[in-house]
Structure formats: structure tokens, C-alpha cells
Amino acid sequence: QVHLVESGGGLAQPGGSLRLSCDASGFIFGSYAMTWSRQAPGMGLEWVAKIDSIGAEIRYADSAKGRFTISRDNTKRKVYLQMDSLKFEDTALYYCAKDAHFYSSGSYDAWGRGTQVTVSS
Questions:
Q1: How many CA atoms lie within 13 Å of 52's alpha carbon, on the beta-carbon side?
Q2: Nearest C-alpha neighbor of 37 from the set 55, 66, 10, 59
Q3: Between 40 and which of 24, 92, 105, 120 could a Cys-Cys bridge form, CB atoms 3.0 to 4.6 Å apart?
Q4: Are 37 and 44 in contact (CB under 8 A)?
Q5: Which residues pair with 93 in a beta bridge?
Q6: What is the pLDDT of residues 91-118, one digit of tens each?
Q7: d(CA 116, CA 90)
Q8: How many Cβ atoms are within 10 Å of 54's Cβ, its own excluded?
């Protein structure tokens, strides 16, 4: 059974940093792309960063470019999201998702429960 567990969320000040982690189990982690997405209060789901199965192809939403860094460690079965220069508008519930393919297809077949990020002064 696929299991994704996010951690690392919390309260940060504007301009601060947080590092999110997603622990994966129940599938061959190194064979699938992974994505970080977020949902702010009252808003729809927005993908933030994508990484293919080996970390060779990475994409960022415009809102994340230059501030967020996605990475993965296939030996540890983890995917990370380093978030720097946080803004109020980064406040959201952040999810990691398993892609159905080794490349970032946008077709997801498993989601974690999310970790809350709140940016507040």
C-alpha cells in the first residue's frame, strides 16, 4: 500500500525558511516522479514543484521559482521542499503526491495528508 507522510511544516516569519519532507513507502520510490502541491484557505490546489524519478528534470510554479528547491533522496525514499524567502501568500496545506509515471505527467495516484505551513509576523 502506498503511503506518503509529509512533515516539516510550521510557523515561519516572512523572509524565513522551512524544509518540508515527504517519507514514501509501499512502492518503488526511485521509479516515480513526485510533486509538491499546496492548497491555501479558500483556494484550489496548486502544484508548486515537480521532480522526475531521478531528479534530472525539475519544474517550479512561477510562485516558487527562485525561492523553493525540490530534491529527492531515492536511497532514503524521501522528497524535500526547501522553502526560502517565505511570503504571507505561501500559507497553505502542503501535500506531496506520487506521479503515475517516472516523468512528471501530472497524473497522480497517491497523496499524503499534508503539512501546514503558516507564514505570519
A1: 9
A2: 59
A3: 92
A4: no
A5: 39, 116
A6: 999 999 999 999 998 899 999 999 999 9
A7: 10
A8: 12
Which among 69, 115, 70 is positioned nearest to 94, based on CA atoms?
115
Helix ranges (DSSP H) in 1-121: none
Tens digit of each residue's pLDDT (9 = 90 or more) over 69-86: 999 999 999 999 999 999
Give the whole-angstrom CA distance, residue 77 versus residue 17.
23
3-state secondary structure of 54: coil
Contact present, 58 and 50 (Cβ < 8 Å): yes
Please, are residues 57 and 105 in contact by the beta-carbon 8 Å criterion? no
Q: Cell 503539512 sits at which residue?
A: 115
**Strands 10-12, 115-119: pairing kind:** parallel
